[in-house]
Amino acid sequence: MAILEITDLHKKFHNNVVLNGIDLSVNKGDIIGIVGPSGTGKSTLLRSINLLEKPEAGRLSLGDISIDLPLKGSSKKAVTELRKHTGMVFQRFNLFEHKTALQNVMEGLITVQGKSKEEAREIALKELENVGLIEWQNHYPKHMSGGQQQRVAIARTLAMKPDIILLDEPTSALDPELVTEVLNIIKKVALQGYTMLLVSHEMDFIRKISTRVIFLDGGKVIEDGTPQEVFGHPKSERAREFFIKMNKLKEPEYYI
Question: Within 13 Å of residue 129, how many CA atoms lie on the same side as its CB?
Answer without folding.
Answer: 6
